[in-house]
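FW: tagging you since you asked about this chain on Friday. Here's the raw sequence from the shared folder, copied in full. Didn't touch anything.
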Amino acid sequence: MEKCAGSVVPASAQHWETAESARRYLHDYGRESAGQVDRVNATLEALPLAPDSRVLEIGAGPGVLTVPIASKVAHVTAVEPSEGMMTVLQEHMNEKAVENIRCVQKCWEEVADEDLEPPYDLVLASFSLGMPEIKAAIEKMIALSSGQVCILWYAGKPQIETLYRLVWPHLHETDYSPGPKADVLFNLLYSMEIYPDVKHFDFEQVHVFESYDQMAEYFQCEHHIPFDTGNPGIRAYLETYIEEMDDWFVHSEQWPCMMFQWEA
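HL: got it, structure written out here
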């Protein structure tokens, strides 16, 4: 379930290997702006969380969901392969004075029994399906859950893939190959005789850049795109999705997703 199958975009764990890039991710997706609070709250409200719950989160990142979940449950085990993400997750835990999270810095396929404290009432994977064998990964999630499994993944055509489709031919002389979306995941679950409850979300991410250089840095660091306005794809994307307000640049990014949830 790689996000950019067949492309040269780095694998997720490699991209977030530095604490600097992980802090940028936490700032962009975990900051307490209205849009981000709404997104996190909508996700939390859809999860079966109780004060005595034990939760396993796979691909915890810097703790955008992990830390809020920990404030509502008895225990969270957070699995995260990236050193940078794990560093920032622990910073985030310290900042929020959260002590009920067990951190495991490994890829999901490398996690062993001794790394975990099962059973878990909820096993959660939120936008973290960059795994070589997704069926085996799901079977492992099910085996560790005494309650529910929940997976969030991209649906439809995330707006950022519009950028990739526009710039890819000019960068690599080939078309961009998008990764599989929620329909593929649903079909896989169906083939495993798993019939999940499905919820659809339309999330919005708004970035406000104080300068052109800051905007260029975001696209280069976050999306691995050389910000060259000589690239007609870059120009086309800027004209459509960037709004200039005085000396500010506003980027509103839409990304539809689906939540699959079932009893293990």
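FW: The chain is about 40% helix and 25% strand.
HL: agreed, and Residues 61 and 86 are 7 Å apart (CA to CA).
FW: great, closing this out.
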